[in-house]
Amino acid sequence: MANLTKLYSDIDFTFTRKPVTNDVALSYDSQAVIRSVRNLLQTRHYERPFNPDLGSNMDAMLFEPISMLTASSIESEISNTIKNYEPRVILQKVEVIPTPEQNAYEATLSFFLENSSSPTSITLLLERNR
Amino acid sequence: MAGSNTNIQITDLDFDSIKTNFINYLKSQDVLKDYNYDGSALSVLLDVLAYNTQYNAYYLNMVANEMFLDSALQRDSVISLAKLLNYTPKSATAPEAIVNVVVNQVTNDASLTLPKYTTFLSEAIDGVNYTFVNDETVVVDVVNNTATFNNLKIKQGTPAGMSYVVDSTQNPKYTFKIPEINVDTNTLSVTVQETSTNTSFQVYNKATSFLSVDGDSLVYFLQEGPGGYYEINFGNNVLGKKLSDGNIVRLSYLTTLGTSSYGANSFVSMNNIGGYSNIVVSPVSASSTGSAKESLSSIKFQAPKSYAAQGRAVTKEDYITAIQQNNLGFTFDSVNVWGGQENDPPIYGQVFISAKPNGGYTFTATQKQRLVDSVIKPLSVMTVQPTFVDPDYTYIQITANVVYDPKRTNLTAGDLKSLIKSTLMSYSAKTLNTFNSTFSTTDYSEVIKNTDPSIITNEINIQVQKKIFPILTGATTYKLHYGVGLKRGLFLSGINSSPSIKVRDPVTPSVIIDSLFVEEVPQATGGVSSISMINPGFGYQSTPTVKILGDGTGATAEAVLSINGTIRQINVTNKGSNYTSAIVEIVPASNDTTGQLASAIVTLEGRYGTLRTYYNNTQNIKKIFNATAGTVDYNMGVVTLDSFNPFDVNNQLGQLTITANPATTMLSSSYNRIITVDPFDPTSIIVNVTARQT
Fold this sequence. Notes:
- The structure holds two protein chains of two kinds.
- Chain A is α+β, with helices and mostly antiparallel strands.
- Chain A has helices at about 30-40, 60, 70-85, and strands at about 10, 25-30, 90-100, 105-115, 120-125.
- Chain A has a single domain (about 10-15, about 25-125), classed as Roll (Nuclear Transport Factor 2, Chain: A), CATH 3.10.450.40.
- Chain A is built from three helices and five strands; from the N terminus they run E-E-H-H-H-E-E-E.
- Chain A is globular, with a radius of gyration of 16 Å.
- The mean pLDDT of chain A is about 90.
- By secondary structure, chain B is α+β, with helices and mostly antiparallel strands.
- Helix content of chain B is about 15%, strand content about 40%.
- In chain B, strands 1, 2, 3, 4, 5, 6, 14 and 15 form an eight-stranded antiparallel sheet that branches.
- In chain B, helix 1 (about 15-25) packs across helix 2 and helix 4 (about 295-310) packs across helix 5 (about 315-325).
- The termini of chain B are far apart.
- Classes of the chains: A alpha+beta, B alpha+beta.
């Protein structure tokens, strides 16, 4: 079952089942790292036991008036969180664009994975959910 | 998933260590590798798992702690564990004062009743007036229109009561709570009324021994329940009579404020007595002997001892435990017990008990009798007679000479003096004042040295004191045991007394001689007291010459010959003086050719000293009043005042202090002796400080 070619491996948070082995599904390498970045951004401070600093303040920022200023704050929050807690990511660029008609922000993150030469880019729609 | 590293640490209790252990464990596999990254799903799972593990570990640790008497912290747990040892924690106990109550102008009654719970208000202690009540009804005859209630015991407390209707559905265990934390359970009285319509009632008593309890016994069982409230429950018709539905349980008791009313000694009656209001309350003894509710540490200490004694007083520890656990409200700083066979001379068949009351010096005769009658005798072996003896206090007067460097402290000489004094006083309070304690000047020297870094060196001189209250109505002999050998005094430094006393002139008793003191007769050493034969020798034809060889001068003696040529005895003809050692040489007469081998030893007077009393007459000339007022046994440390008969002692208390110099700087107390430094005597610790000359 061991997969020595994979550098990173993590449990998939969807907890789906592998059809053949019936084992829990795993995610690997870039997929695992992207998942980790998403987890970090979605974790609020004080959410993790005994580690109150871990996470980001994004949740609160999404309730601020939608503006370029808030977008800029979100940008720096994202980049700080990743720099602090995700050493596998070498961040190139974070761009957050407000989309008031959707009541959301569109965040695009460009980065390299450590030990990898190909750039990775993800786009997240940051939307408050209540 | 498990790899080679299957040993997982299970002894860590904190979150970080537990999580690190999990990570170390995961390092042994290569399926899941992201355990080190905080954002990974694996890390989230590890956090939850570690949190849960820590939570359970903490909880289990607390549960385990509370299961043992030594480690339990919650009062409820300690009480519950003490219950298994058949130990009921002591409630708060009401302090007690004794007063005489005189009701005047009683005109229409032949006798007068002082009802239970008549209220007396004390003077203010720290700004608070306390309520005292009598806890039993007293009836006295009226004599000359006056009713006198002598030696009335009044207790600090407020009467309170509670009643419960018995309902076996609601309360199947028949447990009834006393809703007051500060109840004095010694004052608890329990009555059970038949029903609300049938008002006849029966009094129930507290069950103390199960041997005498059967199914008809009217007893209740007392225990401390949850939250520190006492509760009582009743029997099951096997051990104690069972209650029936509809019975009404009535509890009445005092709630007390504990020791805060100590010292109250002036009271006024708040009620008319039998309708009469001309009431005079005079104090006999001030409020004392109460206690607060038993503390957790005391329960932890006492419960196993109580269990070990098994309700009997056989060993020394049994006696001490029984006395400390008395239900009379007496509290102690220290208790000591020893068998009479250890006395000198031995007294067989008696157990001697000595106790120092909490914050006081001695118990009154009545209190001692109550301790013996109510606490000791019911538990002790029938043939053993318990005897209570007062503690015998030896006071130590400390003079400390301290050299300090003023450059190494901000304190002035005066500050340093009072700092050292208070440090020594608190060290004394901590280490002395109990039986079986030891005083050593070395310890005190060390304490002074550690008081302030500026102190360079110090020396300590001590004197030992006995404080007596001489009887002023007749000649009495006082034997003062200092518990330590005494140093022979030189001129003006021997045994002395303070303050001065007054005596009647023996020739004309109407003349009072004032400013009389006791002192040791200043003599360097004594003479020869006696000579005892070791070997009478033989063949002496005529009386030999006896020579006394020693470091003194003037002693002479002569031998007495028996008819068979041995020496019968040697008589001292002149005691001489200044001997510290001496031997006897028996020299046959010059014409005696056969007398030989007689030998003898010398007993010197030096073991004993003499006390005398003196005063300075009107011309300020020292006059000896009584040259043989007493003796001093230096080896045994006993000062005897023979037929001491002062007319008055010149201080308010009537207390006379006899000061002596101990032969050693280390004192130990045993039996009923207590060594103490008197906190009320301003001269008990004298500190002299000297700045170092630079």
